[in-house]
Design a protein that fits this description.
The chain contains six helices and ten strands. By secondary structure, the protein is of the alpha/beta class.
């Protein structure tokens, strides 16, 4: 049996479909920024403030921008004129790898119960608070801050979470509520740009999340302590 195709039959066979090209990967600077990326840049800004490379006002402005931009490239612009940022962009040098994680995360949980953190305590850089039909109070008015930026991630479901800070601490909030309340009340008139920054991110479902300064409670300038330690 002859297995060869007739030339006319070969011409009638359809050509193989072209393989679609893979989508091009975005440039490194165009990648969406992660929490770890923001933490890395926040630490560089904090070190620059402690070393006197940035004024308190410059640090506050850059920190505001830090949590508003969306890409890694926009974050790098904030530290390009600082030693750690310039080293990453120096010719012939590879950028320093971002930290693998955001470090240990403390947890405060209240399920049909109550929980509190108050008095003389040391909050970590990241704390997770979850309230389900419960009540959580986080009082930072006597806390010892060991970092420039302290962040709280809060979830409230039919519960209540209250966060109190000294009146001269910078307080920022990013969150929302569904049939619930998410409210962060920063006092711009009394906030000290050299003091620590407390960031509250949260979501409330039929619950309440409130962060506010306690008037009359003030915190000693952390930047001065860092400068003395470096000196």
């Amino acid at each position: 049996m002859d297995m060869e195709k007739h030339p006319a039959d070969a011409a009638a066979d359809p050509a193989p479909a072209p393989v679609p090209a893979a989508p091009a990967a975005p440039a490194a600077g165009g990648l969406r920024a992660s929490d770890a990326d923001r933490d890395r840049i926040a630490q560089i800004l904090s070190d620059a403030l402690a070393e006197g490379r940035l004024t308190a006002e410059e640090h506050s402005e850059r920190l505001d921008t830090l949590y508003a931009v969306k890409t890694v490239g926009e974050l790098e612009v904030l530290v390009r004129d600082l030693p750690a940022g310039a080293a990453a962009h120096a010719p012939g040098r590879a950028a320093a790898p971002a930290p693998a994680g955001v470090g240990p995360v403390e947890s405060v949980v209240a399920v049909c119960s109550s929980s509190a953190r108050k008095g003389r305590w040391r909050p970590g850089p990241h704390t997770r608070a979850v309230s389900v039909l419960g009540d959580i109070t986080i009082d930072l008015t006597e806390a010892v801050f060991e970092q420039q930026v302290t962040e709280f991630n809060v979830v409230s479901v039919l519960g209540n979470v209250e966060i109190l800070v000294p009146e001269n601490v910078t307080l920022r909030g990013y969150g929302s509520g569904v049939l619930g309340n998410f409210e962060v009340r920063g006092e711009a008139a009394t906030a000290d740009p050299r003091a620590p920054v407390v960031i509250v991110r949260g979501f409330s479902l039929l619950g309440n999340i409130e962060a506010r300064p306690r008037l009359g409670a003030r915190l000693v300038d952390l930047a001065d302590k860092l400068r003395k330690r470096l000196g």
